[in-house]
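Before a colleague's protein record goes any further, I have to sign it off. What it holds is a sequence and that sequence's fold in token form. Would you go through it and say whether the fold makes sense for this chain? The record follows directly below this note.
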Amino acid sequence: MMHRLRTIRNSTLTMAALCCASTFLVACGGEEEPVAVVQKAPPPKVEAPPPPPRVPSIEELMARLDIDQRVNLPEDLAPATEGERVAVLKFFDGFARGNADALKPMLSEPDQFLLGEMTTSGAFAKSTSGISRIDVRCGVDAGATHALAVFHVGEEYEPQLWTLSNAEASPEFDSVATPPDIMDKLSGDDPIGLWFLVVKSELAKAEEPDEQPELPKQDFTAEDGGGENAGGGDSAPSSAPGGSPGRRMPGAPIKAPKPPGFGTK
């Protein structure tokens, strides 16, 4: 009986000691403080750039601007911007309709002067009245936009190249020199670039010194060595020598060229 009581008392003491130990641990900070979780800010949202403005098609612009149907500018040969497209279509519409007043403010000063002379003489009205079609193609060369046109006049084809500037505000067309027989020399996918190469070649030829033909010599001395003219000095030849071969500068009259290889519908 005493032994049993002693065992119970010892168990009670053990339980009390464990309770005290637990209380001590709690009081001394046995529980860990919660760690704050830092959330990363989401990456900034990158917005896609707005799509470029749509460029109206040539068909749309011709209908909107009431362009003469004789002007043929294929979509794949047209300028890249709306301003350039409008300028080119209006420019060649002036030729198709023979409208000098519409063309004048779009021409460079030298071309305005030439247009004025042609208008006064009646040459402009005469040359534009026979236009049945204008095939146009545009391209970029040396950073500038150019418009190459082939005018169908009766059975002939008249080519001309212009450089376009300031298309978005006040478009101006400046004509490029036309080498002789230029249509026979244009081929491939870049006739505009080839045109400038031909002009450069023609200008180089024009700067070359003219050939000096050797003048024929004739002896007027009598066979026996006598006579008033015996031993005479320089004498004029009996006939004038043939002239040196001429050179045509760019812009000379053009023969009827071959049909163009572009711009067909």
